Amino acid sequence: METTQQKKAIIEMAESIESQYRVDYVDSGLPRWLIETAFVCYLLQAAINWAPLMHWTTEHASLASAIIQTFGVLVMYFGLMRGMKPLYSPMTLAWWIVIVLNIAGFLTMAIPAIMYSVGLPIAVSLMVVYLPFGCAIAFCYRGRLRQVGIWMALYILISSIIPVLSYLLVGPESGLANLPMEIPTIAVIVIYALVQRRVLVK
Fold first, then answer.
1. Which residues have a Cβ under 8 Å from the Cβ of 121 and sit 6 or more positions away?
2. How far apart are CA 115 and CA 103, in angstroms?
């Protein structure tokens, strides 16, 4: 029969193990203003993700749209990559792959002429990388960092699947008729931005 001291020792050991995996904040070394600017870019990305606005920006301001949709992502990912380096599983290679794929995505958005030829392979590559990478972060860590992994996987799933379902169920029509299908894709960007900011800002 376990004594009180043995039970206490087991609890303390469990808490010690849990504390090794729990990460609520990482020190990215990035200035606060840069992280907040990246967060604002995420919010703008969510706004222009509404189909009518997305079509307009693609036709009339493709470069600005590409910058908005890429700048925040790259800053947050670079900050997370730097902040995770001291951790027991930094996953630096996976972060670099995600960063490179997002830079490639920037080029396809900034140059509409090449979007139709390379846009789909890049989108598929992002899904192939984001989903297992997000699951790996969620599996290896606890705390706020785990939330980043969970929402990374949800972000790529919702961003990839909902537009397809929207097209199949509603068709190419946009606007208010398609708004119920677009709300999840807008909301997931905002939530994903929030969980990243919570890890990078103490």
1. none
2. 13
What is the C-alpha to C-alpha distance for residues 27 and 81, in angstroms, rounded to an integer? 10
Q: What is the pLDDT of residues 95-136, one digit of tens each?
A: 999 999 999 888 888 777 776 667 678 878 888 899 999 999
SS3 category, 57: helix
Non-local CB neighbours of 58 within 8 Å, separated by 6+ positions: 65, 109, 112
Radius of gyration of the chain (CA): 20
Q: How far apart are CA 155 and CA 174, in angstroms?
A: 21
For helices 32-48 and 51-60, the axis angle rounded to 10 degrees is 110
What is the mean pLDDT of the segment spanning 34-40?
A: 97
Q: How many CA atoms lie within 13 A of 138 on its CB side?
A: 15
| Main-chain dihedrals φ then ψ at residue 77, nearest 5 degrees | -65, -40
Q: Which tokens is 153 given?
A: 């996987």
- Structure tokens given for 10: 């087991």
Helix (H, G, I), strand (E, B) or coil at 85: coil
What is the spatial distance between Cα 32 and Cα 202, in angstroms, rounded to a whole number? 10
> How many Å apart are CA 64 and CA 59, to the nearest integer?
11
Q: What is the model's pTM? A: 0.84
Residue pLDDT, tens place only, 40-60: 999 999 988 876 777 777 777
Write down the H helix ranges in 22-111: 32-48, 51-60, 62-84, 92-110
